[in-house]
Amino acid sequence: MTDDVLKKAMKGIQASLRRVVKKTFSEDPESGDEFIQKVMQKVSTSTDPGAAAASSDLVLEAIVENMKIKQDLFGFLDKMAPEHTVFASNTSSLPIGEIVSTTSRQDRCGGLHFFNPVPMMKLVEVVATSSTSPETAESLLNFTKALGKTPVCCKDTPGFIVNRLLVPYMMEALRLHERGHGSIEDIDTAMKLGAGYPMGPFELSDYVGLDTMKFIIDGWSEKEPDNPIFAPSELLNKLVAQGKLGKKTAEGFYKYKK
Ligand code: 3HC
Question: Is the CB of 12 under 6 A from ligand 1?
């Protein structure tokens, strides 16, 4: 973790707050600015994860989706954090039980899976592994409620609830297009106007990140190679190989302003 990354993250939080404040304090922008300042004062950053964990009741990890790196981080934090500290991962598709297997507090570990854009999406998936204690599950549920979110309880199964349904749907949209059964634009329009989705599957894939989609589907297809709903897509693989990862690189299925 570098200072630059943390500065960028703080800017991101501030930008999100500005969007919210613009609406909620539209009549009184000065109070809106004060509100932003107050919130920002409560957020502190550190490039030293061990020191940060030493004074935390809850550690929520949202680092790169790599099992070994996550396991190493939790193994390290386990030595630094107090006994009572609960560990949670925001992984989209990796098994939580495996991620925290390097800790000596598996009863105090679970998953807290948020959705993009986090300030707008009300859901949080609270994941209990077979080792998560009822007290830990309860405290994770209470934490999400205190944030003003709605939690759902999930088992530690691939994709939990949302991604297990959403990713195969987005992949099937890709395959539908690859078979020549609909243009990208028409499939998106169809799902928005015919099924009431706020974004079509291609818009949503670009928003989530094509690399993330590929990572999730590759992981599942490795475990269940004969399951057709986990079958890879040539188009997705090609775009990722070209570095066209969606909104974050200004090009995926669509082009975006830089
Ligand atoms: N921070 C704060 N507010 C934001 C925001 C952000 N980052 N992004 C959007 N908003 C707010 C806007 O200010 C606006 O608020 P208002 O309606 O009160 O004025 C509202 O959201 C709508 O934004 P826009 O008018 O700019 O655009 P849209 O109406 O198209 O909505 C959207 C944008 C909320 C992203 C909507 O398209 C949507 O809900 N899309 C589906 C998102 C989704 O499915 N997310 C889940 C992805 S899967 C995932 O995250 C799991 C991971 O593991 C892969």
Answer: no
66 is catalytic: no
258 in any annotated domain = no
pLDDT digits (tens, 9 = 90+) for 195-239: 999 999 999 999 999 999 999 999 999 999 999 999 999 999 999
The answer to whether 69 touches 94, Cβ cutoff 8 Å, is: no
Phi, psi torsion values for 110, nearest 5 degrees: -170, -170
Q: Which of 120, 164, 165, 212 to mutate to test the pocket of ligand 1 (most atoms within 8 A of CB)?
A: 120
Structural domain contains residue 59: yes
Tally of structural domains, the chain: 3
6 Cβ inside 6 Å of ligand 1 = no
The verdict on 36 and 54 lying in the same domain is: no
The answer on 5 and 52 residing in a single domain is no
What's the pTM value of the predicted model, to 2 decimals?
0.93
Domain check: are 184 and 235 in the same one? yes
| Domain encompassing residue 23 | 1-45
- Counting Cβ atoms within 10 Å, is residue 170 exposed (0-12), middle (13-18) or buried (19+)? buried
pLDDT of residue 225: 95
Give the CB-side neighbour count of residue 129, counting CA atoms within 13 A.
21
Whether the CB of 67 sits within 6 Å of ligand 1:
no
